[in-house]
Design goal:
The protein is mainly α and about 550 residues long. It has four domains: about 170 residues, HUPs (Rossmann fold, 3-Layer(aba) Sandwich), CATH 3.40.50; about 90 residues, Orthogonal Bundle (Glutamyl-tRNA Synthetase, domain 2); about 55 residues, no CATH class; about 90 residues, Orthogonal Bundle (Arc Repressor Mutant, subunit A), CATH 1.10.10. The N and C termini lie far apart (about 100 Å). Bound molecules: glutamic acid.
Length: about 550
């Protein structure tokens, strides 16, 4: 068969460069010895998940601790799954977690010498290499329809054979020249398949940087390399891109392990040296005593948006992921409590070989701990940025009153003080905790435990003597006065000695005032709350809180 003629007929493009030109255009990178080039290669589906962040963190740490490069490549070969804005969303989501790219799609960088970084824009490179494989007899056109392939699969299933397009099942592998040209003349659509040279009886040992030594069986599947629209499959694009973008270490999910034999063969026929690989284990969760993979459908916490929308403190999520990424991170953290995670010596060897257990409770613990360490300015900045993006209009109005919010935070969370609250996990929760300080979001239920006449009397008496200039003890003395005037015991000891003799104690009076001013039976120090609300708002609330 005239293979050159075949290659020209199947891939008639006139603007393909000689293959050596690509080697010159994308020369090996000039980096220090030991520097690793890693990449994140998501499909732009708009769904960026914890697994992506998990891999990206490993990529980023390894590149940046070795003086290497971490770049972003967009694998957009599947037009149907493409979502508008997905690339920006990947970059934004990762940036939120302090994972930044040095180079790649939509990254403004002088290092962008290995692009384009969108696979659709690289069609010519793939076609040039596919054409070369055809001309060397290592790839061929396949005219099988979906129905043909289904029929093959059914037959293989019935015979309990390995499914796929290989060996004697690969019908188009041995088409004659005449058959090929008559199919082409008839305008039949075709894909380009690899003519696999592998022997499934042969095995070799492959050293995965995470999983260790694994036994790999040679590939014998004639996989599709170019689809009927001329766009490559993941496999083909992976080999070409990771070679020409000069990736030294591919970190990707373990779901790709089964394709490794295909990739080994592709690198071989293309004549490229292979990069190192590390296949990460899947994130698992415990359910009813069993471990199972986190699933997009069942587990909202798989989506990175979940953490942003709920206002997780990004450093807490990163710290948590570091604990599951590297088994020695926690110990290092205990020894270096104030050090930043970037000072930790991250190594791929310490990554887990199998199912990493994702434990939301533990993440929440870390989150509470991290938030309890923030300075007032850090807490305010963190909550403000969350409000900016995810808060309601009311939240944004509130946070525009910076000083007022800061004094509330100091009180409600003990930020900057000794009585620091340690139970705050997320911005969404913290922001709701201060709602009652603002009239537009103050929605009290007024659940008093005393008769309306008693409640109203207490409110009026206190309003008459309230003075914002009072310090805590003067304030409390007035609460006691009001208590005594309405038949409540001013001293707890007196009340305890004779509970029948009183309507209640001074604590009950304080509760009435607290419900009136905050809408809640429990709150931080009421005198301070009144101070923050100010005289007018406090009096208005006391007046509005009458019942009956
Ligand atoms: N586009 C592939 C994915 O999103 C990338 C796999 C890889 O990192 O090679 O799963």
């Amino acid at each position: 068969m005239d293979l050159i003629r075949l290659a020209n007929s199947l891939i008639p493009d006139e603007d393909l460069l000689p293959l050596e030109r690509y080697e010159e255009m994308y020369p090996p990178r000039q980096l220090p010895k030991g520097a690793q080039v890693t990449r994140l290669a998501p499909s732009p589906t708009g769904f960026i998940h914890l697994g992506n962040l998990y891999s990206a963190l490993a990529d980023e740490r390894i590149a940046h601790t070795t003086g290497g490069i971490f770049y972003l490549r967009i694998e957009d070969t599947d037009e149907k799954r493409k979502v508008e804005g997905a690339v920006e969303s990947v970059i934004r989501s990762l940036k939120y977690f302090n994972v930044n790219f040095d180079e790649g799609a939509e990254i403004q960088s002088p290092l962008n010498n290995y692009g384009p970084y969108y696979q659709r824009q690289r069609a010519k490179i793939y076609r040039a290499f596919a054409k070369d494989l055809i001309s060397r007899g290592l790839a061929y056109p396949c005219f099988c329809t979906e129905d043909d392939l289904n029929a093959v699969r059914e037959e293989q299933t019935a015979q309990k054979l390995t499914p796929g397009y290989y060996g004697a099942w690969a019908r188009c592998r041995n088409l004659s020249e005449e058959e090929i040209y008559s199919n082409l003349a008839a305008g039949k659509p075709f894909v380009i398949r690899l003519r696999s040279q592998g022997d499934p009886q042969k095995k070799c040992v492959f050293r995965d940087r995470i999983k260790g030594e694994i036994t790999v069986t040679e590939n014998d599947q004639d996989i599709v390399i170019l689809k009927s629209d001329g766009i490559p499959t993941y496999h083909f694009a992976h080999a070409i891109d990771d070679h020409f973008m000069r990736t030294t270490l591919v970190i990707r999910g373990e779901e790709w392990l089964s394709s490794l034999p295909v990739h080994i063969e592709l690198f071989k026929v293309l004549g490229f040296p292979m990069p190192a690989y590390g296949h990460t284990c899947s994130l698992m969760k415990m359910e009813g005593g069993n471990k199972r993979k986190l699933s997009k459908r069942k587990d909202p916490e798989l989506s990175l948006d979940y953490y942003r929308r709920d206002g997780y403190y990004p450093a807490a999520v990163v710290k948590y992921l570091m604990t599951i990424l590297n088994s020695n991170f926690e110990e290092w953290e205990r020894k270096n409590p104030s050090a930043d995670y970037t000072q930790f010596k991250f190594t791929i060897e310490k990554m887990g070989k199998s199912g990493a257990l994702f434990d939301l409770d533990k993440l929440n613990d870390i989150s509470r701990d991290e938030l309890s360490k923030l300075s007032p300015a850090e807490m305010f900045a963190f909550l403000s940025s969350w409000v900016e993006e995810f808060g309601s209009d009311a939240d944004r109005r509130h946070f525009a009153q910076g000083e007022y919010v800061q004094s509330i935070l100091a009180l409600v969370m003990g930020v900057g003080g000794k009585k620091r609250r340690k139970d705050i996990e997320r911005a969404s929760q913290a922001v709701r905790m201060i709602d009652y300080f603002f009239d537009d979001t103050f929605s009290p239920a007024y659940e008093y435990r005393f008769a309306p006449s008693v409640v109203n009397g207490v409110l009026d008496s206190f309003a008459a003597v309230y003075d914002p200039a009072d310090d805590n003890s003067a304030w409390f003395a007035k609460v006691k006065e009001v208590a005594a005037a309405h038949g409540f015991a001013a001293e707890m000891s007196a009340y305890k000695a004779n509970p029948e003799g009183y309507a209640g104690s001074v604590a009950d009076v304080a509760e009435i005032l607290r419900i009136a001013v905050t809408g809640m039976a429990n709150s931080p120090d009421l005198c301070t709350i009144m101070g923050i609300l100010g005289r007018e708002r406090t009096l208005a609330r006391l007046a509005a809180a009458h019942v009956g």
